[in-house]
Write a structure and sequence with these properties.
The structure holds 2 protein chains of 2 kinds.
Chain A (H helix, E strand, L loop, with lengths): L2 H34 L3 H7 L4 H38 L9 H16 L10 H36 L7 H41 L2 H6 L3 E2 L14 E2 L2 H33 L2 H16 L2 H23 L9 H26 L2 H9 L4 H30 L2 H6 L17 H9 L8 H35 L1
Antiparallel strand pairs in A: 1-2
Helix pairs in contact in A: 1-2, 1-3, 1-5, 3-5, 3-6, 4-5, 6-16, 8-11, 8-13, 9-11, 10-11, 11-13, 12-13, 13-16, 15-16
Chain B lengths: L1 H6 L14 H43 L4 E10 L2 H4 L3 H6 L3 H10 L2 H9 L14 H10 L7 E7 L2 H7 L9 H4 L3 H12 L3 E5 L1 H5 L12 H32 L4 H13 L4 H15 L7 H25 L3 H9 L4 H29 L3 H5 L20 H10 L4 H31 L4
Antiparallel strand pairs in B: 1-2, 1-3
Helix pairs in contact in B: 2-20, 6-7, 8-10, 12-15, 12-17, 12-19, 14-15, 15-17, 16-17, 17-20, 19-20
The chains are: A mainly alpha, B mainly alpha.
Chain lengths: 472, 440
């Protein structure tokens, strides 16, 4: 019996509880009116809550304890099962490293589920039987406990249903709690991100000094796979990564996105007729809706070879096929709609009287834009551009597919550079050992990325907000 | 004139501008030219952005539409029980289809295909290495064929397929055109004999990943995307809407509420790859959930989608006028009843629009899923929420990395499928917004 079925069964029980509770509620309504011996109008107040609330009350008290038990069990079950399976394997055949243990258990699980027919490691065959048997036993046990608690909760709830019972108030308190817990998920997520990044980064910084990480200029983590290898210490100077990220995301991409996005926004807000605007704006938004993996494919397959040909034509014989320029230009195009909509908002927030005043003085629309609207909207536009930068440096797929892995410290746009996000993906795909600096360095990079985007966002939002208030 | 000027306390007295002078005319002309140029620049920027989009779509469609077609070669196959290693009498006697299928799964169809392709003579290498699957499907559909001979269309190797679609420059020297003279001769000969046909590629839409391009399909990834998004919707919709209702209708104004609001706004701007790190560190390492599973992918994407849903739901709830709430409260509804029976139903179009847009974004997301291992090579269609699976954008990424030339058209075709789903979802969102949104 799998956990999914157990969960479904718990919800099924709750549904049964709801039906019983509601039926009870209906009976209460029907009988209390008769007992009072009055007309139908008087019956309404005779029972405090509507039958649905009686039902929900029973269902909630049946579901809540069962769900707690099952959720708790589902979180610890894999660990418990792994321990009992490994304990059943003779000590000589027991896998030693954590990596071996993981692959051993994967095979055991595959065998137990019937997906693997012939295992690589023969010791997994008896272990898989132990696994299946233990899993069934424990799941039965957890199911039984959950069902008992559900029944107890349900019966207790049922016993409390009387005409005076305030079922609606109880249910509403539970709903309020549910809503509050839902909003706590946001905090938990933030906390989870911060704690996991900091925790893994601290482990990384125990092996590599933060000074070397933040200011070193040599990055070659790939050599640090095994301890007995030559050059196993690896080099974790992340400056080339930071430079590559800034070069692609904050320089090349912005050189494309700022002029195009700004001019698009100016045209759309100042010149375009409503009918034209109605057509052009969705096209811009479509550009924002294209998945980044599509941009990456396009950058790698279509743009990068052209950029390379162009570099060869310029006389660079060893031009790389993975250039910063190709990734940066495509990323810039991806950011255009973002810059455009931020600039759009900023321009629209400038009071119409300023524009009208300028036009009435005889300035042409372009003079109005350049001399009045842009200076007035500048803080908003700058804030928007900062947000765009933060989005560009966090963007992953385009650079993973088009920018390459070579950590070069270069200002040649035709050269290959690598970025923080590219390295995170490269470090964390494939086999992982969670005690090697190679894997952990990805979390340190993630922490830096998170910190920088957070600061950019907070600052940019503050700028935008302050400026909006100034005109409101 | 002079008395008028002196009476109005003007600091500098000057002649009225003569707009008809050539100097002024030139100046006006220059300003108007600048105006036209500026206007043109704006239009050009928009045009450039639009033409980039058109170029991108054009390239994808040009490379990808042939991915929905495949080339097949006709061979005469005798379903020889001896080659298959089957006992014809026993198969005929087996009434149970499941037992018959089990027998066919053991049979040597690859050997049968090899024997059948020998009749193509020198060109036996054009048949795909997975072509025997077509024979097995034929026989499973009609067991009476055992021992009979029939003409079967089987898929060809990717190179021949690409030749037939004209994807190679045949004028180029052999070394740079990516296809051998031998393959070209085989293709030309078979084409001349009329043994090749091009048809709708059912394999692409019905199978999962494969190492060879002609057998690779999108169905496994599509199913993986569906499972992942189901988890995402199941988690992010109730939690997101609940959080928005709490913040908008019930939350007391205190420090905790501020912290919640700030963290939601910040989560909306956190790079998606950070959510992948979170999923890896928390779901996989702390909770020990299975790698590559739609469950973990869905949860990770749910956390990413949550702020989008919360923010759009709050906007939708805010736009419901207070008079509705006051009226409901006035006739005795409890605050919870006001929210769930009046405010939320009225805000639902806005909530659904925001949810669909958030889910569409999750569907196109790749980076966080790479980190939790959904780049695994999965040849089976996913069986459940905890089995290894891949999703459409990751499939695109994996194929784009593959050196085999046939994967270029598969990648583009997969992108076309992905984009069509995204466009459909966004159209539904726009339809909902236009049809049901009310201005109060």
């Amino acid at each position: 019996m799998s956990l999914t079925i157990l969960f479904l069964a718990a919800f099924g029980l709750a549904l049964v509880g709801f039906q019983i509770g509601r039926a009870r509620g209906r009976t209460l309504v029907a009988t209390s009116g008769i007992a009072a011996g009055t007309a139908a109008r008087a019956r309404i107040g005779a029972v405090h809550s509507r039958p649905n609330y009686h039902g929900s009350f029973v269902a909630l008290l049946a579901l809540a304890p069962a769900l707690v038990v099952l959720l708790g069990w589902s979180f610890i079950s894999e660990g418990v099962l792994t321990d009992s399976v490994l304990a059943s394997v003779p000590a000589a055949e027991r896998p030693e490293t954590s990596l071996d243990r993981t692959s051993f258990m994967n095979e055991v699980r595959g065998l137990a589920a019937g997906e693997i027919d012939e295992p690589f490691d023969l010791a997994t065959i008896p272990a898989s039987r132990v696994y299946a048997a233990t899993q069934t036993n424990y799941n039965m046990l957890a199911g039984a406990v959950a069902a008992t608690l559900a029944a107890l909760g349900g019966f207790w709830a049922y016993s409390r249903l009387t005409p005076q019972f305030r079922a609606r108030n109880r249910v509403e308190v539970a709903v309020r709690w549910g809503l509050m817990l839902a909003s706590l998920v946001a905090i938990l997520t933030t906390l989870g991100i911060v704690l996991s990044l900091i925790f893994e980064s601290l482990r990384f910084f125990q092996m590599v000094s933060p000074i070397e990480f933040l200011f070193g200029t040599r990055w070659s983590p790939q050599t640090a796979i095994r301890a007995d290898q030559v050059g196993s210490s690896g080099a974790f100077g992340a400056v080339p990564l930071f430079w590559g990220t800034i070069f692609i995301g904050a320089i090349i991409a912005m050189l494309v996105a700022i002029p195009l996005g700004l001019m698009s926004a100016i045209y759309l807000t100042q010149y375009a007729k409503p009918s034209v605007r109605k057509v052009l704006k969705p096209i811009l938004e479509l550009l924002a809706g294209v998945p980044t993996v599509v941009y990456g494919f396009f950058a790698a397959l279509t743009v990068a070879p052209r950029v390379r040909d162009f570099a060869v034509w310029l006389g660079m014989s060893d031009a790389s096929s993975e250039s910063a320029l190709a990734a940066g230009v495509v990323m810039g195009v991806m950011i255009i709609p973002f810059v455009s909509s931020m600039a759009d908002d900023a321009l629209n927030a400038v009071p119409g009287s300023m524009r009208d005043g300028s036009l009435a003085m005889g300035a042409t629309p372009s003079e109005t834009v350049k001399r009045v609207l842009l200076p007035a909207a500048l803080p908003g536009i700058v804030g928007g551009i900062l947000l765009a930068v933060s989005r560009a440096i966090g963007e992953t797929m385009i650079v993973v597919m088009a920018a390459g892995l070579a950590a070069n410290l270069t200002i040649n746009p035709f050269d290959s550079v690598t970025t923080v996000t590219t390295q995170i993906v490269a470090l964390l795909t494939g086999d992982q050992e969670f005690d090697s600096p190679k894997t952990l360095s990805a979390f340190a990079l993630g922490l830096v990325l998170f910190g920088i985007t957070l600061v950019l966002n907070i600052y940019a939002l503050a700028v935008v907000k302050k400026y909006r208030e100034a005109y409101d | 004139m002079a008395t008028l000027a002196s009476s109005t306390a003007m600091p500098v007295e000057r002649e009225p501008t003569d707009w008809s002078s050539t100097r002024m005319q030139r100046r006006i002309a220059r300003r108007y030219a600048a105006e036209r140029n500026f206007r043109f620049l704006g239009l050009a920027a928009l045009g450039l952005a639009a033409s980039f989009l058109v170029f991108l779509l054009f390239t994808i469609v040009r490379d990808g539409w042939t991915g929905f077609l495949n080339t097949e070669v006709r061979v005469a196959v005798t379903y020889e029980p001896a080659i298959l290693g089957l006992d014809a009498g026993r198969i005929a006697a087996t009434a149970d289809p499941a037992a018959r299928r089990a027998a066919f799964r053991q049979a040597d169809f690859a050997g049968l295909m090899l024997a059948a392709s020998e009749q193509l003579g020198d060109f036996d290498s054009v048949v795909s290495e997975g072509a025997w699957l077509a024979l097995r499907d034929r026989l499973e559909a009609d067991p009476a064929l055992l021992g009979q001979t029939e003409q079967v269309w089987v898929p060809v190797r990717s190179t021949i397929d690409l030749l037939n679609k004209g994807k190679f420059d045949l004028e180029a020297p052999e070394i740079s055109r990516g296809v051998s003279d031998r393959d070209i001769r085989a293709w030309q000969a078979l084409e001349a004999q009329g043994k090749l046909r091009t048809g709708f590629n059912g394999i692409f839409l019905s199978t999962a990943d494969s190492t060879v391009p002609e057998l690779a399909g999108i169905w496994g990834a599509a199913l993986g995307s569906l499972l992942t998004l189901l988890v995402t919707i199941a988690v992010s919709f109730p939690v997101g809407v609940g959080a928005a209702i709490w913040l908008e209708e019930f939350a007391p104004r205190n420090r905790w509420t501020d912290i919640i609001e700030v963290s939601i706004n910040n989560l909306a701007a956190v790079p998606s790859i950070i959510f992948g790190l979170l999923g890896l560190a928390v779901f996989l390492n702390v909770f020990g959930m299975p790698r590559s599973a739609p469950l973990v992918g869905g949860l990770t994407l749910a956390l990413m989608t949550l702020p989008v849903i919360v923010i759009s739901t709050r906007v939708a709830i805010k736009s419901v006028p207070p008079s509705i709430r006051d009226a409901a409260l006035g006739i005795g509804a409890s605050p919870i009843q006001v929210v769930f029976q009046h405010v939320v139903p009225l805000a639902l179009p806005g909530i659904l629009t925001g949810t669909i847009i958030g889910i569409a974004r999750a569907l196109g997301e790749t980076a966080p899923l790479l980190l939790i291992g959904m780049r695994a090579f999965v040849v089976d269609t996913p069986q459940g929420f905890t089995q290894p699976a891949t999703v459409l954008p990751v499939q695109v990424f994996l194929w784009s990395d593959d050196v085999a030339r046939g994967f270029i058209e598969k990648t583009s075709a997969a992108i076309m499928v992905l984009m069509m789903i995204l466009i459909a979802m966004n159209s539904v969102a726009i339809y909902l917004r236009n049809k049901f949104e009310r201005r109060w």
